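Class prep. Protein, please:
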Amino acid sequence: MNRTWTVILLAGVLLYGCAAQSDPPAPPIDDATLSALPTRTELPAATVTALPPPSPQPLPTQPVIVPTPDPTRPSQPEQSLVRHVVQRGETLGLIAQTYGTTVDTLLQLNPMSDPDAVLAGQTLLVPAGELRLGPSDKLIPDSELVYGPAFSHFQVDALAQRLGGYLIAYVEEVEGQNLTGPEIVQLVAQRFSVGPRLLLALLELKSGWVTNSSPSQETLDYPMGEAKDGWDGLFIQLSWAANQLNRGYYGWQSNWLTNAEFPDGTALQLAASLNAGTVAVQVFLARHNSVPVWENQVRWDGSLATIYRAFFGDPFRYAIEPLIPDDLSQPPMVLPWAEGETWYFTGGPHGGWGTHSGWAALDFVPAGDQLGCYTTDAWVRSISTGRVLRSENGEVVVDLDDDGFEGTGWTVLYMHIERRDRVPVGTWLEPGDRIGHPSCEGGFSNGTHVHVARRYNGRWIEADGAVPFVLDGWVTVGFWSEYDGALENGDEVREACECRELETNGITR
């Protein structure tokens, strides 16, 4: 389904929540991403002797039919769909006239409570006539797109050292500490839950940083090709790329993304037989290329597949299928505060990390009358059993199966946890144990709160999806727009609101 973004302003301040952004034009990296733009440390070209990459495995003379967890989809409707970003002054009637359709058709494609209230920046699905069909070659399994079980023993640094490119000499200040190129790749992979093998292959395709110790000058600031003011440096470039890959993956699985769109305005319909991981790659590579260049990159024997096989071998040999079992169910979870306390539900389903990582997260704020960012002695409590794997930069990641790797089984992310009293790595938690204090630390937030999200086998699990977020019997329901939604417990309903109103969004545990 197509979901549009919503930001609710109260007295000019975004209260209690992670900020939402439109796409385009604002940078699609928010919520639990960048606390500040990085400062890149300029370095000379790497002085290590570059080793040649291993010889690519020979490609077969015919495409290999590879199983994927995505079955072939029904044929797309005769009239394909594209996205339209509403401009200032546009109405549904004017948009319908522009695309040669009707207001009723637009309302069928974009359910909304008030058809007269479309907003500038809102994204709508609109008919776009018949489109040419893109390649149906499957490039990677879904388990290569997400940071899941296939990466339990993969080491970014080992690959980078073996290939001897500029990546190993690169250093950048990220959130107050200097990180090497491989450390940045690993950090982005963990945060966005995107496979590091894919990130490395795309980095090599876009800039040559993995094998070339002296890459071209034009790639040094923008190694992933997204040349925008303030977006220089590997960290923000890879963060943008990971967010866009998640957009393709979760957009395809949610059935709202149907086309690959190119800089010249051309759109190609995505082949119905593709899996979500391949769609993510196709949509990402369309952003900066002409159709002919793109087609060469995304064919089964194209440039990306050649790089992937040279670095890692056949990507499908790493396939974990099914990544998500059909009978998946959430383990018991409780509300993230102490019994007897009342907190407020301020953010319905929205991105787990960044704007496009599924709508996996919910937001809550403690009782009180403070607005904006403030210090509180209220405690965020564990919603489940598990062991703390990471505790840094406002984030706490808890591993429910206690196998020491966050890409397998269930994990829970708590975001905006204050440094003071934050639970240390290695701590075993029971439901109700203390995690730390809610705050604005980590990522971007205009108000003190806690952001909670779930993953299974590295895949973000939508809060209002097939396995809904359930906390002490409160079941999550989404309302089409990001951050909008409700929690239902029997006859009781609490709707997400950037407010503290007991009957509207207050919940007593």
Summary: The chain has three domains: 39-63+134-318, 81-122, 342-508. The chain is about 20% helix and 20% strand. The radius of gyration is 23 Å. The longest strand covers residues 342-350.
